[in-house]
Amino acid sequence: MDHHDWDQRYAAAPLVWSAGPNQFLEHETATLPPGRALDVACGEGRNAIWLAERGWRATGVDFSPVAIDKARAIAAERGVDADWIVADVTDWTPEPTAFDLVAVMYLQLDASGRAAAYRRAADAVAPGGTLLVVAHDLDNLDHGYGGPQDPSVLTTPESVVAVIGDLTVERAERVRRTVTTDAGPVDAIDTLVRARRTPG
To answer: What is the C-alpha separation between 95 and 112, in angstroms, rounded?
Structure first.
């Protein structure tokens, strides 16, 4: 989908995603001291806003102007100060080695687009900083619940690790995320990669 499709999706509902942070972001950043954070493909800004509420200097970037407008409004309602950028993350280059945390959550692009975005995200990680990638995993098609059904936008831990350059991988695995349905709880399968740039 291009940004016009996402604009329509974001405009059609008060919130497309939940208001709270992604559970993996919350867990994986629990012990990190607040610094400068970048939320790549931030959507309505829930993760950037949550980070800002915890003392991070957060920047969210997304190619949907409607999503960014909603992120600004939600941040203002919650009294949060964050920076918001409208840009296509496949060709937008963040400031190199400038962010203590770079989060890329559920970026839905084909393999070449994902690789470009992940490389730029990795390059933006500061010395001592962390890259966190969470994505819909290819294995979810056959063994998990929900998520995109187009295999071209799904990934694996190995394919993420292959494109993030010289970062030290701390965690690269498939993880299960519980989804509540009318029939009861079911599991979705995600890729999770956490990597760190060696301190300078």
So the answer is: 21
Residue ranges covered by each domain of the chain: 3-14+41-196
Classify domain 3-14+41-196 by CATH number.
3.40.50.150
| Token pair for 99 | 């962010």
Non-local CB neighbours of 36 within 8 Å, separated by 6+ positions: 56, 57, 59, 98, 99, 100, 101, 126
How far apart, in whole angstroms, are the C-alpha atoms of residue 116 and residue 128? 22
Rounded to two decimals, the pTM is 0.91
Q: Which two tokens stand for residue 89?
A: 């993350």
Written as tens digits, the pLDDT of the chain (200 aa) is: 444 554 455 455 555 445 689 999 999 999 999 999 999 999 999 999 999 999 999 999 999 999 999 999 999 999 999 999 999 998 899 999 999 999 999 999 999 999 999 999 999 999 999 999 999 999 999 999 999 999 999 999 999 999 999 999 999 999 999 999 888 999 999 999 999 999 97
18, two tokens: 């939940």
Nearest Cα residue to 12 out of 84, 66, 86: 66
Q: Count helices and strands (H / E) in the chain.
A: 7, 7
Whole-angstrom distance, CA of residue 194 vs CA of residue 124: 14
